[in-house]
Specification:
With 212 residues, the chain is α+β, with helices and mostly antiparallel strands. Helices cover 19% and strands 39% of the residues. The termini are far apart.
């Protein structure tokens, strides 16, 4: 079939439109990272803590509960999670490597990296978190509320029942993944230079739980 001048112009227009559409597809902005990816050094907490925690996770109309033993010192963070008296999760982080073990019954949505990140977002000082944030991320704290935002859009909101994060009830709401984590802690901390914050650790924490 012989193409006329009008047909050639039409074909050229179609090819131009196809090229533009392909260009739009290839230059589409990348989706934001799935998670913040926060991994602060244990030493940056500025305290040695030993806690027993009761965790409640609410997601998609489902509620799961977990008991945890958490210990943090300048060298390492160790967490052991228990459900119905059975160990279901172990985390060990030395500031460089995160090692974890999980029971097959644990929901796949519970990832060691996410547990570490939420723990650090709730317990670590705002200044330490702010220094480690990637471009576009911000953290602000007003009174007993802490807000983590990406491009000025709130992603995580954390509410505290008191000014001491490891001695109170904490409610973390993740607005991106639509879950709410409530943490109730008992235990103590040894904060250098703050005698009033020194409390004896409670028994039965991570150091007392046998490894698999």
């Amino acid at each position: 079939m012989q193409l006329t001048g009008k047909s050639w112009r039409g074909l050229a227009l179609m090819m131009t439109l196809a090229t533009l559409m392909a260009g739009c597809a290839t230059t589409k902005p990348a989706a934001p990272p799935a998670r913040l990816g926060l991994k602060l050094s244990p030493a940056s907490l500025g305290a040695t803590i030993s806690l027993q925690q009761h965790l409640t996770v609410e997601r998609n109309g489902r509620t799961d509960q977990l008991d945890a033993a958490l210990e943090i010192d300048p060298q390492q963070l160790t967490m052991v999670g228990l459900a119905f008296g059975q160990r279901v999760l172990t985390l060990h982080y030395d500031g460089q490597n995160l090692q974890s073990w999980r029971h097959p019954m644990l929901p796949s949505q519970v990832r060691a990296e996410d547990v570490l990140e939420d723990t650090q977002l709730t317990l670590w000082p705002v200044a330490a978190i702010r220094q480690a944030l990637p471009p576009g991320w911000k953290i602000e704290q007003q009174g007993l509320r802490r807000t983590i935002s990406l491009d000025d859009v709130p992603v995580t909101v954390i509410n505290y029942s008191s000014a001491v994060p490891w001695g109170c009830k904490v409610a973390l709401t993740n607005l991106r993944y639509h879950y709410r984590l409530t943490i109730e802690s008992e235990g103590g901390a040894d904060v250098p230079g703050d005698v009033s914050a020194k409390v004896k650790p409670v028994p039965g924490t991570a150091a007392d739980v046998a490894a698999p």
